[in-house]
Specification:
Elements (H helix, E strand, L loop, with lengths): L1 H10 L4 E14 L2 E14 L3 E5 L6 H8 L7 E6 L2 E2 L5 H11 E5 L10 H11 L6 H11 L15 H13 L5 E5 L7 H18 L3 E4 L3 H4 L4 E6 L2 E5 L1
Parallel strand pairs: 3-8, 3-9, 6-7, 7-8
Antiparallel strand pairs: 1-2, 1-4, 4-5, 9-10
Helix pairs in contact: 4-5, 4-6, 5-6, 6-7
Length: about 240
């Protein structure tokens, strides 16, 4: 009980945006159980820049899905921005995900038939926002240097520009965290550096909490802390 009280105390601390305590995740494949997470615990402070690294099969993708409210842990406690989300139903989890997590993916995940501004508006649409939606999307695109590309579709943009659209979309709801999964993986080195510089500037200027899930040492070296995962547990932090 004392340990759980400590977790709850950390979770409600305004300086801590993520508290995960003793997370397990078990996948059942027929008669076989795969233990992807085995009592993993981490916390992330508000405004921190963190990298999560580990080899294939280490559990980092499973952890990313739980942090991003895309999946439930099998057991353990998870608090996001002071809210206990580990036991929420899927519909409530979707609401938390849309409001508190901004996602940036390696493959950009933009809708090809929509303009840049239309893609950025989507989280507002899902949140039921009707007022000033277009103005907010325009401001988000301007903040990532794409004020002159509002009406361009993804196939009319470079890879770096598409990732900037994805960043603007991730920012639109002012999320508690931005979760970036290999954000430079499909970019050349110059564009990748520009994207990392942009994300770090958002952290410096606005205090945005950034979590990178990455294999790339050149991405991780820009973070304040590296959490290394192996076999479903934290192997070490630096």
């Amino acid at each position: 009980m004392a340990k759980l009280d400590s977790v709850i105390g950390d979770a409600t601390n305004m300086d801590t945006v993520i508290v995960a305590e003793n997370l397990t995740k078990v996948y059942k494949m027929g008669d076989v159980e795969v233990h992807a997470l085995q009592g993993l615990s981490i916390d992330v402070k508000r405004g921190e820049v963190v990298a999560i690294m580990g080899p294939s099969g280490s559990g980092k993708s499973t952890l990313m899905n739980i942090i991003g409210c895309l999946d439930h842990p099998s057991s353990g406690e998870y608090y996001l921005d002071g809210e206990r989300v580990s036991l929420l139903r899927d519909d409530k989890l979707a609401t938390i995900r849309n409001c508190k997590v901004g996602f940036i993916f390696q493959s950009f995940n933009l809708l090809p038939r929509m303009s840049a501004i239309g893609n950025v508006e989507l989280p507002l649409v899902y949140s039921g926002v009707t007022r000033n939606r277009r103005e907010r999307a325009k401001a988000a695109l301007e903040s990532v240097g794409l004020g002159d590309r509002l009406n361009h579709r993804p196939n009319e943009l470079s890879g770096g520009q598409q990732q900037r659209v994805a960043i603007a979309r991730a920012l639109i709801n002012d999320p508690a965290i931005i979760l970036a999964d290999e954000p430079t993986g499909n970019l050349d080195s110059k564009s990748g550096k520009e994207i990392i510089d942009l994300l770090l500037s958002l952290n410096r200027e606005h205090g945005t909490t950034l979590i990178f899930v990455t294999h790339a040492p050149d991405v991780a070296e820009h973070t304040q802390r590296i959490i290394r995962i192996r076999d479903g547990v934290v192997e070490g932090q630096a």
